[in-house]
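Give me structure tokens for this 85-residue protein.
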Amino acid sequence: MEPVKKATNYVTESVQSATSGVSKETNKEVARDSNNPIGTRASAAKDALGDKFNESKHDARAEANSPSRGTNNNQGSNQGGGNLI
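Here you go.
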């Protein structure tokens, strides 16, 4: 059941990352458009930064749940809490 949960989380985080990426690009375009009022441009720039943060966060979470990482929690790290000798 754990692989299904990880796969679901991977898809969810990937979709959220893509959504944040689209929003970021839209906000960047609004911020760059000199026909928009300065307040609108500043707000869009701020929102683009927030979207970039969210995109990166969701990318990291998707990577953590990536099916290519396998189901073994001890792959390449000591996250299982065991002692290294």
